[in-house]
Input
Amino acid sequence: MKTVVLKFGGTSVGNIERIKKVCKIIASYKKKKRRVIVISSAMSGVTNELVKKSRLISNNFDKAEYDALVSTGEQASCALIAGRLNHIGFKSRSWMSWQLPIQTEGPYSSSRIKKIAIKELNNYLKSGGIPIITGFQGINSKFRLTTIGRSGSDATAIMIAKFIKADECIIYTDVEGVFTTDPRQYKKAKKITKIFYDEMLEMASLGSKVMQPTSVQDAKLNNINIEVKSSFISKPGTLISDSKKTCSDQIITGISSTKNDAKITIVGVKDKPGVAASIFKPLSKNLINVDMVVQNISQNGQDTDLTFTIKADDLKKTEKLIKQNKKISYKKLSFDKNVSKVSIIGVGMITSPGITYRMFQSLASKKINILVISTSEIKISVLISSNSVKKAVGVLHKEFKLD
Ligand code: ASP
Ligand code: MG
Output
């Protein structure tokens, strides 16, 4: 008998009607004679409300209590699902993370799942029951509740699939799957039928909100195929795995764009060993994520310009840290808040020459100025003015035959 893990996101269980609908989906797998395990997020909005409450209590809310608080949303949704399944005639019960347990390690709010005990779960499955397990939460070695990062229920589902050796892991959400680019921004976006883990990882890290990046990494490491699909309409979704039909002549799989980036240029810093390290050390200590970095070749062998990007939210703090930094000297500091990163992603670019040229040429044809460029084996990113993002995505979507 095949075992399937079904994960439902916050909007899929967002109200009572939707929970009833979700239970029909669960029942349909049971009718197909599957062993079914369900992971649920909190009802949409609930976790955010809890976060807000913690801030009203204290702006320095205890980290362990924070996790104890924000993980409660999942308890409610799981009990509601199990209750409804009971009502329509199925054997089902809820399982909190600590009842299994789901053991985690690492700091509160961003723990990672280390181990999941499955013996009881297996017995329950054998007896025909449908376990409904809380996503997002776990316990640490001190038996305190932990959480694994916002949107972490995806990762819970993938780790449950791993430990229980499930045949399938299906992520039910409010979109039909993974799209070539954001369908709300660009109408010609198409649903991707199959995508590699690495491509999905880039898409997720670069702003596609469909899946949490850590969960994609977990899936890749453990070789768990995932299907992402909608809980609202019954249509095939996107399969994320390490194999893809080779018939496709598509080089680029998707295009992503970010919002709220900021660019900082330090003009006239000394060109000598250790300068970049001196600049970035205080930033890393303050958990400021630096993304793209370019350093110009110095003209006179003495000083150079260094440009890098961060999230716009971190701009003030970064400015302060650079100005306070006694280890560096420079001539001028400049900032640009209205910049965005547009990236093309696809494993096909490893073997196809000329992709970089085609990207730059397309942008040039629309008179879009490129501020910073960065590349990896499977993606090319450019930093451009935020006003041009829509135009850039449009021209690239067309150039790489995604329309
Ligand atoms: N409820 C948690 C959150 O909103 C976890 C999740 O949705 O996956 O972040
Ligand atoms: Mg969520």
User: Anything to note?
Assistant: DSSP finds twelve helices and 19 strands in the chain. The first strand starts at residue 3 and ends at 8.
